[in-house]
Amino acid sequence: MILDEIIEKTKQDLEIRKKEISLDLLGRTLSSNPYTPRDVKPYLTSTKEEPIRIIAEVKKASPSKGIIKEDFDPLVIAQAYSNSGANAISVLTEPHYFKGNLEYLTQIRRYVPTPLLRKDFIVDKYQIVEALVYGADFILLIAKALSSKELKELYDYAIHLGLEVLVEIHDKEDLTKAIKCGATIIGINHRNLDTFEMDMSLCDKLIPLIPNGKIIVAESGVSDTEVIKRLNSIGADAFLIGEHFMRVPSIEEELKKFKNALN
Ligand SMILES: O=C(O)c1ccccc1NCC(=O)[C@H](O)[C@H](O)COP(=O)(O)O
């Protein structure tokens, strides 16, 4: 089970980082933290004027595909996203399976004005403080990776620190957990995190069950305007897209095309 494997490795890494800097010490650095998290909800909410919202992902590798982008420069990619109208940027920080790095967040935050998501396998408050220290505006919590109690605790902690949370779901059970914890931004991930199989009809099944007023993000496997149009018409506000942008000849052209899918 790849999800269990990633979580296990994440926990091992965390023990090492906590020995270097304790949660208390890390928390104390927050008083001099230069980054104030921005409210991402207006960026991700579909409106009449700007119906399609894009969270564009900085993604070098993945467990399902291995290395996706050889000539990978996170800052250059983030600048291209920002210049072409991305509403938020997802920065993968998991180092082993996605070849991500927490430092990418700071690097990008310094030069790029677009709000940033720390995309990782968050199982501990320590990672939430890290997200803040390194410059994220919101974090991902994966319902499938957490018990209801853990999800609620981590969700409340992030909100308490001023970070928004994208709660990722894969089925009805996850949705129940997301609603219970009070999630306002719900991501439906088409990719099964264990088998890597894509179910592009997952939004059709889950969106009707989501209470009104939530921001809905369609995640993974999105690579054409027809899918974007269809999912937007059934209620998706935003689209989290990684691999496709990493493989196209021009990020700028492709992102603008997606943003204008309804024109
Ligand atoms: O991308 C993977 O292979 C993967 C495998 C196991 C757990 C998570 C995985 N991806 C994380 C993501 O959710 C995606 O990076 C994100 O939704 C963008 O997806 P895509 O546009 O398909 O790159």
Describe this structure in words.
The protein is of the alpha/beta class and 263 residues long. The chain has one domain (2-33, 41-260): TIM Barrel. 42% of the residues lie in helices and 17% in strands. The protein has helices at 2-20, 23-28, 41-44, 74-83, 102-111, 125-134, 148-160, 172-181, 202-206, 225-233, 243-247, 251-259; strands spanning 53-58, 61-62, 66-67, 88-92, 116-119, 138-142, 164-169, 185-189, 215-219, 238-241. The protein has an eight-stranded parallel beta barrel, surrounded by seven helices. The protein has a two-stranded antiparallel ribbon with strand order 2-3. Strand 7, helix 8 (172-181) and strand 8 (185-189) form a beta-alpha-beta unit. Helix 7 (148-160) packs across helix 8. The longest helix has 19 residues, at 2-20. The mean pLDDT is 97. The structure holds the ligand O=C(O)c1ccccc1NCC(=O)[C@H](O)[C@H](O)COP(=O)(O)O.
Shape: globular
Integer-rounded radius of gyration: 17 Å
N-to-C span? 42 Å
Count of DSSP-assigned helices: 12
**Strand composition percent:** 15-25%
CATH topology (level 3) name: TIM Barrel
Q: How would you classify the helix and strand content by structural class? A: alpha/beta
Mean pLDDT, as a whole number? 97
Looking at the overall shape, the CATH architecture is: Alpha-Beta Barrel
Q: Output the CATH class name.
A: Alpha Beta
Number of strands: 10
- Give the cofactors and ligands: the ligand O=C(O)c1ccccc1NCC(=O)[C@H](O)[C@H](O)COP(=O)(O)O
- In what order do the strands lie side by side in the largest sheet? 1-4-5-6-7-8-9-10
Task: Point out poorly predicted stretches.
Answer: none
